[in-house]
Structures are given as structure tokens and as C-alpha cells.
Write a structure and sequence with these properties.
The structure holds two protein chains of two kinds. Helices cover 80% and strands 0% of the residues of chain A. By secondary structure, chain A is mostly helical. In chain A, α8 runs antiparallel to α9 (207-215). In chain B, α3 packs across α4 (108-116), α6 packs parallel to α7 (190-196) and α9 crosses α10. Classes of the chains: A mainly alpha, B alpha/beta.
Chain lengths: 274, 307
């Protein structure tokens, strides 16, 4: 009989998930794309942001330009890890293998999500913070609140996509449909923002943007700091949300994201039949 | 002590009843076969035992506890699935060491279990590079890491060649003998189960149709059975059925199983050659009470259907 001590099931399942999600060459490839997106787009938009005059708005513009270049890479990595990684684990039966270990279901899901989303987020933020430090320390560091709010607002929609994809993947026990829905949602948001802009301009009402900001508060933040550079001067959108309103939109969007993740946890822990 | 007790276990998939009011118990140190055709409800039953599926009705206790999301049970149970799946890009020994750390056992156990299933030479190989037989052996090694008291295996030999099958069954016997590990083995390949099982549960249409020690079941269903091997089973059975002392009969392509009124066995031995001559059938052999597990299974199902 083997002597059994206290095991480390959570850390080992997490390590195993990271090993699979970020095996060669995924980690190297995505880190490269993150760096490329961050640095190339940063130098491009620092020029654009010179049209904005207040220091806070400049800090927002610089941070936003850094984010926009590599946010798509972050979304792609999450799509891969949740739909392909977790979906495959459910479809093929690796989750059943994990269910033979002395770790609660919620622990297994946490380990999988920390690997799929947490590590991707750390990688994204790590490269972003390095870029901010290298490229524009004097502009962004005096306005850390603005920088953090910009990241929070920008990341809420990708996290919403992840939560929806996660629910679909768990319900269908395969990642394919979750992956398609994730891509569609990403594209749909870009289309929706375009439609919202024209609706807002033609009706002279910010309602479309207000609705959109509940699921993607980056729009509220954008208009708080003066709207789209150049375009807003030509087509006036009658909306300048206050900082409190912007914070409220960001909080609401994270509320939705958190609710969906809680739903996924409840489903995985109490209802998921394999 | 009962390791597994299930009472009134039921599970539906939409309109399909997969398991219907199933009762089962498994004693410490036993090797129990869960036998039945494809779609009989074996895998669903095993999934409920392992806490992967919630029963719609009834309950199951493993080591006296509800298996759903129960970490205490997992330290006492090893699992082998029909198709084993592990993180594919990790090396066998490396992954088993991880499993050792998960269960809090010494990492040296990883090599021990690999040696037990004769996979030590594949210790540096990635899991995805293992053949089907090696993967099943690896699954057994994986199930043994924490020295479980019970191993639940669902069709573990289904995708293997005869050589790999017999090697796996050897391992089962060895573990049972050396470490008193109890097994619940589901399979539809009956001859191999008869080699290792001391008890069987015959499951059909989601219900346990017969359950007990093999010796008891043979006594209940196969005593008084005379097996006639012939080249014209169906024609000869039709003739045999006409004999007034024949209680029941059943035939397949290789022969006929006949149960007669007690004390009439000798008469059947005399009548069979006469009837065979009449229809020009060849008699290849007549034996009493030599039912295989396959025949036992068929007899139990037939007896239940008649009821």
C-alpha cells in the first residue's frame, strides 16, 4: 500500500493545463504577436493622440493605442484556449480524467480558466506594462487611474466573449460552436459600434452608445475623453459621459461578465453530466 | 463491506431510458463483471458510480458516500475508461509523476506502476505517441498510482488486439491476487470476463437481470442444461422441442441448449441420435452442465424474458 500524503491537485492540474495550452510554439508565437501589436501600433498612434490636449486624455490615448494593437491577439488566444483547449478536453474525455483526481469540480474549472484566460491576461498585461514603461513613462505614470480604467474598459468585452464561449462550450461539450460564436461576437461588436455611431449622429441621441457601453464600456471612455479623433469634429455625437458614468458603465459590464462566469461555475459544478 | 451500493438507479436521455431502477452491490476484494450488450446501460451505470452523471432517480453510494463531486472517494478509486485520454503532449513518466504529486504519493511510485504494466521502456515517450494497447496499459498504470481499493473499468479491452487483452487481464488478476484490489469491469466480451470475474451482474435494457457469484448463477440458470453441438441446430431443436420431457431449449448456429425434466437426461441422450438421424444432422458432442459465461448470459436473459 502506498503512503499518501497531502497532494497538490489544484497546482498540478493548473500546471498540466498550462503545459497543454501554451506548449511550443503557442507561447512563443503569441508573445511575439503581442509584442509586435503593442510596439508597432504604439508608435503609430502616439502621433494621432497629439490632437488631444489634456494630460489625462493623452494618457488615455497612448494606453488605448497600445491596447488596440494587441487586443485581437488576446482575443485569439482566449478563443484558442477556451474553445479549442477546454472544448477538446470535454469532447475527448480529459476532463473525465481530471475528475478522477481529488479536486472539486470548481477547482478543476478554476485551474482550466486560470490557464486559458489568466495566463493569457498576464502575458498581455506584462507586455503592455513593459511597453508603457519603455515608450511613454512620463505621460502615463502620473495618470495611473486613467491607465487602469482604460485597461478595465478595454478588457471587459473580450472577457464577456470568453464567458459566453465558456457557457456554450460547457453546454455543448465541444468547442467548435463556441469558437464560431466568439468570432461572430467580436466582429458583431465592430459592426454594432459603426451602426451605433450613425444612429447617434442621425438621431442626435446617445442612446445607442449608452446601450453599447453597458457591454463594452470602452465607448463610454472614448467619449468621456473627447470621442474619436478627427471624426467627432466632423460628425458631432452629443454625448460626453462623466467619469462617474464611465465607471458605472465599466462596473455594469463587469457585473454581466461576473454573472456569466458564476453561471458557468454553477453549471460545471452542479449540472454538468459527462 | 460493500464498496458500491446502488438502489433504484435510473437515468434517461430524452425519451431513451438508459438505466431503469437498477440495483447493485459490490463487495470488498471482489472482481465483478458488468456484462450486457451494447446499449444495455453499462457505461451510464459506471458514470453514475463515478459521479460523472447524476441519476434521475435512486441513489448510489461508493465507500458509503455520494460520489458526485466527492474528492474523498477519488483517493480510493482508480478509473480506466474504454478510450483513455490524457494530456497528449506530456511524457508518460512525467505525467505519472504529476499524478503522484496530485495524490500526495512518492514520485518513485510513477516508475513502479509503469513497470507493473511493462511500459518502463516508454517512460520518455509523449502520451500521444503510445499505441492503443500501450495507452490502455498506461491508463491502468495511471489508475494504480494511488493504490486504490477499487478499480472501475469500462470496456477497457474493447479496442485492443487479443495479445494486449490477455496482458491486461493478467494484470487484473495479479493486482487482485497481490493487492486485493476490487474490480468492477464492464464488458460485452464475455469469454475474457469469465477468466477474471468471481461475480457478474447481467445488465440488459438498463436493468440488472441477474446478479451474484458465478457459481451461484451457474447453479441457478445452467444446472440441468444439456448442450448439443450439431451442424443443423435449428432443425434439430425443432425436433427436440416435440419431446414431452423437454422443459426449454434454445439454439444458435453451433448448437442447442436443452433443459429437461429432472431424471430425464438419459432419455434425451438416447433420443438425440435418433432425431439427428431422422433429419440427417451430424452430432458433434453432447455435454451436461457445461455452460460458458456467454451461455449463462443467454440463459439468464431467456429465463427473465419468460417471466
Amino acid at each position: 500500500m502506498t503512503n499518501m500524503g497531502k497532494g497538490k491537485p489544484f497546482l498540478e492540474v493548473l500546471a498540466s493545463a498550462i503545459h497543454e495550452d501554451f506548449r511550443f510554439p503557442f507561447l512563443e508565437l503569441f508573445a511575439f504577436f503581442y509584442a509586435l501589436g503593442t510596439f508597432v501600433f504604439a508608435s503609430f498612434t502616439v502621433g494621432l493622440s497629439s490632437q488631444i490636449t489634456t494630460n489625462e486624455a493623452i494618457a488615455y490615448s497612448v494606453t488605448n493605442s497600445l491596447i488596440s494593437g494587441s487586443l485581437i491577439v488576446f482575443i485569439l488566444l482566449i478563443l484558442k484556449n477556451v474553445a479549442y483547449g477546454l472544448g477538446n478536453d470535454l469532447e475527448k474525455g480529459i476532463i473525465q480524467t481530471y475528475f478522477s483526481y481529488p479536486l472539486r469540480r470548481r477547482g478543476i474549472l478554476t485551474a482550466k480558466l486560470l490557464s486559458a484566460i489568466g495566463v493569457s491576461l498576464l502575458l498581455f498585461l506584462g507586455i503592455q506594462i513593459s511597453a508603457l514603461y519603455i515608450l511613454a513613462p512620463d505621460i502615463v505614470f502620473p495618470h495611473l487611474g486613467t491607465v487602469i480604467l482604460t485597461y478595465a474598459a478595454s478588457l471587459s468585452y473580450p472577457l464577456l466573449i470568453s464567458a459566453i464561449m465558456l457557457l456554450l462550450t460547457l453546454k455543448l461539450r465541444r468547442g467548435g460552436i463556441g469558437l464560431v460564436v466568439g468570432i461572430v461576437l467580436y466582429v458583431a461588436m465592430n459592426i454594432a459600434s459603426g451602426i451605433a455611431f450613425f444612429v447617434a449622429v442621425s438621431t442626435k441621441s446617445p442612446l445607442a452608445f449608452q446601450i453599447l457601453s453597458v457591454i463594452s464600456p470602452t465607448y463610454a471612455l472614448q467619449y468621456h475623453y473627447g470621442g474619436l479623433s478627427g471624426i467627432s469634429d466632423i460628425f458631432s455625437v452629443p454625448w460626453i459621459p462623466t467619469l462617474s458614468e464611465t465607471l458605472l458603465y465599466t462596473g455594469a459590464s463587469y457585473g454581466i461578465v461576473a454573472s456569466l462566469f458564476i453561471l458557468a461555475y454553477v453549471y460545471f459544478s452542479r449540472r454538468l453530466n459527462l | 463491506m460493500s464498496l458500491i451500493v446502488a438502489e433504484g438507479l435510473s437515468k434517461r436521455y430524452g425519451r431513451v431510458v438508459a438505466v431503469d431502477n437498477l440495483n447493485l452491490s459490490l463487495e470488498e476484494g471482489s472482481v465483478t463483471g458488468l456484462i450486457g450488450p451494447n446499449g444495455a446501460g453499462k457505461t451510464t451505470t459506471i458514470k453514475m458510480i463515478l459521479g460523472l452523471l447524476k441519476p434521475d432517480k435512486g441513489w448510489v453510494k461508493v465507500f458509503g458516500q455520494d460520489p458526485w463531486d466527492n474528492t474523498a472517494i477519488r483517493s480510493m478509486v482508480g478509473v480506466v475508461y474504454e478510450k483513455a485520454f490524457f494530456p497528449a503532449h506530456q511524457k508518460t513518466l512525467e505525467y505519472l509523476r504529476r499524478v503522484c504529486r496530485i495524490f500526495g504519493v512518492s514520485e518513485s511510485r510513477a516508475m513502479e506502476v509503469l513497470e507493473m504494466v511493462d511500459l518502463q521502456e516508454a517512460s520518455d515517450r509523449e502520451i500521444r505517441a503510445l499505441s492503443a494497447g500501450m495507452l490502455q496499459k498506461f491508463a491502468i498504470a495511471h489508475a494504480l498510482v494511488h493504490s486504490p481499493k477499487l478499480i472501475v473499468a469500462d470496456e477497457m479491452t474493447a479496442n485492443l488486439d487479443p495479445q494486449a487483452r490477455s496482458e491486461l487481464l493478467e494484470i487484473v488478476l495479479q493486482l487482485h491476487k497481490d493487492e486485493n484490489v476490487a474490480f468492477l469491469l464492464s464488458s460485452h466480451i464475455l469469454p475474457e470476463l469469465s477468466m477474471v470475474c468471481d461475480s457478474v451482474a447481467i445488465i440488459n435494457r438498463g436493468k440488472v437481470w441477474a446478479f451474484g457469484k458465478l457459481t451461484e448463477l451457474y447453479e441457478k440458470y445452467a444446472v440441468g442444461i444439456i448442450r448439443i453441438s450439431t451442424d443443423r441446430s435449428y432443425e434439430l431443436e425443432a425436433e427436440i422441442k416435440k419431446l414431452n420431457y423437454v422443459k426449454e431449449s434454445d439454439s444458435d448456429i453451433r448448437g442447442i441448449s436443452v433443459r429437461v425434466v429432472e431424471g430425464k437426461e438419459d432419455e434425451l441422450y438416447e433420443d438425440v441420435p435418433r432425431l439427428a438421424k431422422k433429419i440427417k444432422a451430424k452430432i458433434l458432442g453432447i455435454e451436461t452442465g457445461s455452460a460458458s459465461l456467454q451461455e449463462l448470459y443467454r440463459l439468464a436473459i431467456t429465463a427473465k424474458e419468460r417471466k
